[in-house]
Design brief:
Elements (H helix, E strand, L loop, with lengths): L1 H24 L37 H8 L2 E12 L3 H6 L4 E13 L5 E4 L1 H4 L4 E5 L5 E10 L4 E6 L21 E6 L7 E12 L9 E4 L11 E4 L4 E8 L10 E5 H14 L9 E3 L5 H6 L7 E6 L4 H5 L6 E5 L2 E2 L3 H8 L7 E8 L2 E8 L5 E3 L6 E4 L2 H7 L5 E5 L13 E5 L2 E2 L3 H9 L7 E6 L5 E6 L1
Antiparallel strand pairs: 1-2, 1-4, 2-3, 3-6, 4-5, 5-6, 7-8, 7-10, 8-9, 9-12, 10-11, 11-12, 13-14, 14-15, 15-16, 15-17, 17-18, 19-20, 20-21, 21-22, 22-23, 22-24, 24-25
Length: 465
């Protein structure tokens, strides 16, 4: 019995050792981990893009804006007649030749229920006949009411007894970069077409000479869409699509529109005055991207650096000074020159604006009364002329005419600068408006006689061929 009891104890002892060894070496431990508040948190994710969680394109409703817009956008057909001369005798004597009709197309926007339509000047330029097709395929003859080539805006009208759907002008100054917009046009007479995009930039200039201000968008706009509507998601008309920047002539990712505030002002001027009333401050900005601008640090300035102020202009009378930096006009922040010209394009002569300038590192706000343009580069010859001041009238002993303030290099040997032009051919010149018309009518193939007055009041005549 003692022997059996001893064997039992040995067996139990050996089993315990075997079980312990198995637990220690073969079975994986199961630990409980206690975390503290400082431990790195662990997040689960569905791998959904964060853009889908906010307001993206799928959550923006374009349908209401599209429904309000498509029936107010029309197709515009422009018929022009060009004469092809078959010989040099046809050219000089106006005989013979072949008359060829050419058709151009674009879009337009109905802005009143009685048939006024705004479009681009380049859509209707040189038209012999204008035809408008509505979105319901009804076609009408249209007449030209007025046009402004500088802003590329034109106003035409159709006659109908029906009350037409139309779009009211919105406030383009309130448009924000990144805002969703629709470009609506009627190209190729296929009824209205809608594309979507965002506002890519504001106050964009395509021509350094004019510094016109455009809204830039990445909504697809092709040549047939010119004159169509740019609207926001509320269906407000905030621009007239006018241009694309492309070497091929087709859409390449961005396009441009005349801001609605400029288009509205042009249309109102044409309807009220018969022409566009342009207001000017009388300042010239310092040119950028030049060696002088880089050396003076002007390229890095946020605002418009005043390099020149015209005599007796609104800026001159308000007390603006050379070297002032325009930072704000009324409530519009000014970062570059097209910001300023875009806002001035909505104003008329005798309007008053509050101009905030930086002078000696201090901000100063001055009221400026805008005036009619006093300076002009005349067509054909390219001379810069200005209206006469009271001092000029006394010095040159004439009450009318325009003073030559700049002469292109090809005319610098004629002693023109500083003299007053009083007549071009048989046309009397009273101001820069007369000069613009007279020089614009100069023939490339004839001679031009310019009558001038010097500081002694003596008349001189020069003949240009």
């Amino acid at each position: 019995m003692k022997r059996i009891g001893g064997l039992l104890l040995v067996s139990i002892f050996a089993g315990a050792i075997t079980l312990g060894a198995y637990k220690l070496f073969f079975e994986r431990p199961n630990y409980a981990i206690v975390t503290t508040d400082e431990a790195q948190p662990v997040f689960s994710t569905s791998y959904t893009p964060t853009s889908a969680l906010g307001s993206g394109i799928n959550e923006v409703d374009f349908t209401n804006a599209a429904e309000r817009t498509v029936n107010s956008v029309v197709h515009v057909k422009n018929l022009t007649l060009s004469t092809r001369r078959s010989s040099v005798f046809d050219f000089f004597y106006g005989s013979g030749g072949t008359v060829t009709p050419q058709v151009g197309t674009g879009s337009g926007v109905i802005i009143s229920q009685d048939g006024y339509i705004v479009t681009n000047n380049h859509v209707i330029a040189n038209a012999t006949q204008l035809q408008v097709t509505l979105n319901n395929n009804q076609t009408y003859e249209a007449e030209l009411v007025g046009t402004d080539p500088n802003s590329d805006i034109a106003l035409i009208k159709i006659e109908t007894d029906d009350k037409l759907p139309y779009l009211a002008f919105g406030d383009s100054d309130n448009t924000k970069i990144g805002e969703w917009v629709l470009a609506v046009g009627n190209p190729f007479n296929l009824t209205s077409t809608v594309t979507a995009g965002i506002v890519s930039a504001k106050a964009r200039s395509l021509d350094t000479r004019s510094n016109q201000s455009f809204i830039q968008t990445d909504a697809a706009v092709n040549p047939g869409n010119s004159g169509g509507a740019l609207v926001n998601t509320n269906g407000d008309l905030i621009g007239i699509n006018t241009a694309i920047s492309s070497q091929t002539g087709s859409y390449v990712g961005y396009s441009f529109a005349v801001p609605s505030n400029i288009a509205k002002k042009v249309v109102n001027d044409i309807m009220e005055y018969g022409n566009v009333q342009k207001a000017f401050m009388g300042i010239s900005p310092a040119p950028v991207n030049t060696r002088d601008a880089i050396e003076k640090g002007i390229n890095n300035i946020d605002g418009v650096y005043i390099e020149r102020i015209e005599e007796e202009s609104g800026a001159d009378e308000a007390g603006l000074e050379l070297g002032d930096i325009i930072k704000k006009v009324d409530q519009i922040d000014i970062h570059k020159y097209p910001d300023l010209t875009g806002y001035l394009g909505t104003k008329r002569p005798n309007d008053t604006i509050n101009v905030t300038v930086e002078r000696n590192q201090e901000l100063l706000t001055l009221p400026v009364v805008l005036k009619e343009r006093q300076l002009l580069v005349v067509p054909a010859m390219g001379m810069e002329v200005k209206n006469l001041t009271k001092d000029d009238q006394k010095r040159f002993r004439t009450k009318s005419g325009v003073k030559i303030t700049g002469v292109p290099e090809r005319y610098r040997g004629y002693g023109l600068e500083g003299k007053v032009i009083v007549q071009v051919d048989d046309k009397e010149i009273k101001n820069i408006s007369d000069a613009d018309t007279a020089f614009g009518a100069i023939s490339r193939y004839g001679k031009t006689i310019i009558t001038m007055v010097n500081e002694k009041g003596e008349r001189e005549r020069l003949i240009f061929q």
